[in-house]
Fold this protein.
Amino acid sequence: MPHEPLPSRMRPASLEEFVGQEHILGPGSLLRKAIEADSLSSVIFFGPPGTGKTTLARCIAQVTHAHFEQLNAVASNVEELRRAIKQAKLRRQTSGHKTILFVDEIHRFSKSQQDVLMPDIEDGSVTLIGATVQNPFFALTTPLVSRSLIFEFKSLTKDDLLKIMERALRDSRRGLGLFRVKAEPKALEFLADIAGGDARRVLNALEIGIKGKRHAGPKAMTFTLKDAEESVQKKSILYDRGEDEHYDTISAFIKSMRGSDPDATLYWLAKMIYGGEDPRFIARRICICAAEDVGNADPQALVLAEAAFAVSEFIGMPEARIPLAQAAVYVACAPKSNAAYLGIEKALKEVASKPVQPVPAHLRDANYSGAGKLARGQGYKYPHDYPKHYIRQEYMPVKMRFYDPQDTGYEKKIKERLENLRREGENSLPVRQAGKHQGSLKTKDSRIA
């Protein structure tokens, strides 16, 4: 055991030692109750590396009365799989004991190997626990997924990782307690920040850093920030998430995109990625900038930003840096307009500070019995019934202008179209005079938009 890597030595032996994944293992949760009652059905654990999938499976092995069999999909073939299933059936017939079959990296099983499992999962000969880093809805066969409960493991939080490291530093039997290490808080926080939510990675770095120091006599060893940096061959940068540097950097990032400087945009993006920023936080800011600062000057910017958000969540870091960079550069290089943003701000101010205008009778919902008696929808003109799909009519009692499109990018076309429509409207009569409704245009005109 002393020769095993620290992550292996510190692997929790019970649910009480398990850290993280509160969303699926919290008190009273479905999974925890099933484990504690020893009534687990087939499950698939999926999520990033180092988040506890294999560890939880081994914790289950400690508490279950069932026989626990483990295979690794990389090293196992169909013959080994059939042998494990045959033994499980024999065990059930002779002793009545169930078998839990844990398959690590189950996504590496071919379709035929996954199909071998199906009849025995179906009849209860084995209870499957599969672990994978890939989304099972893409990596596994549909029949296997449909017969299993799916539990997604999340990247461990900074607090989770700090707790894991502190436990390893205290533990004299399995951990690093015999080294009598006094770790600087900044050193542990640095390792937690750069670990990407991976307990295996953070414990490996901690062990390398501490064993790499020369133990000077009986005094406690001090593990410094410099030691932490050297253990991962990565320097610490001033990026304190949740504090000033965090907000200053994201501010510089947004202002660089707004200011059409792709190089500065990439620099501040790189600083956030290097500092361990949550890629979802970055992606949300790109989406906001695309809507607020690019707007209708290039509507494609928001589409690309939203796609980068979705892809980043799906693939995770470090690959997520690529779609994030693509979207951020696109937003930085796109023509700019904040007309839509200014428009909604003006409209909100108007609604909040002045009497709210009533909805005109011809725009009100007419799709209920009795609406005709109340003149609901009467006089509404359905734009698609008119040339160019436009007819001038009143849409608010007191006409106001909130949206002022700019002469940039696609918004220039929007501006030209609105100006043309307004000119055409000026050459026609208004739909109704103040206090006087025009007649109904029969059934079509009572449609709700």
About this structure: Confidence is low (pLDDT under 50) at residues 428-449. DSSP finds 19 helices and seven strands in the chain.
